[in-house]
Amino acid sequence: MKRKFSDRANWRRVLRKSYSCLSLDGEEFKGLVTFYHIHELRDPLWKEYNGRRLCLADRGYLWMQHFPKGEHFVVTTMFDDKGRVVQWYIDVCKTQGLTEQKVPWFDDLYLDVVVLPSGEVFLMDEDELEDALRTGDVTGKDAALARKTAGKLLSNIRNGRFRYFTLSLKHRKTLLSRTGEAKES
Asked: pLDDT tens digit string along 131-152?
């Protein structure tokens, strides 16, 4: 199981970025929200879905992550340089935490759900979960948690009950001004 950190300190593709993290404890959302703004990078990051190629990271892009308290998922909303959503990437995780330096992290359970603004939904990396189970990297209990969480996410998305689509747009608009461009590197 991989531990992933929201500041992406080891991401060699990015040459200059700004990063910030806010803690929220409101009615709509309880947890942490991070902002990873890409200012300069070696090469853009591209991904293909059903034959359609999307740029996920380039100069001026913003990756905003929601770490909802008590949940087994983390939502990354990727915005392009014009502020448009490129995709929502939902990592299924075993647990979340915070480093001593106040950087949120999660222990990835391999399964991911990708939602495009067109409404297309993809369940990703089922093969990686099966490989991790076979090699003992995750337990049967971990795999069951991953499948249950992914199923719940997919059901909420299909039934229009996944609030992070609208919440990400709202938080980008209202919280980005509060973060400034702190911790640029």
From this structure: 999 999 999 999 999 999 999 9
Q: Select the CATH number that applies to the domain covering 3-176 from these four: 1.10.530, 3.30.70, 2.40.380, 1.25.40.
A: 2.40.380
Helix (H, G, I), strand (E, B) or coil at 181: coil
Element (H, E) at 150: helix 140-158
What is the secondary structure of 55-109 as a DSSP string?
EEE-TT-EEEEEEETT-SEEEEEEE-TTS-EEEEEEEEEEEEEE-TTS-EEEEEE
Contact 185, 15 (CB under 8 A): no
- d(CA 108, CA 165) in angstroms, rounded, equals 21
pTM across the whole model = 0.93
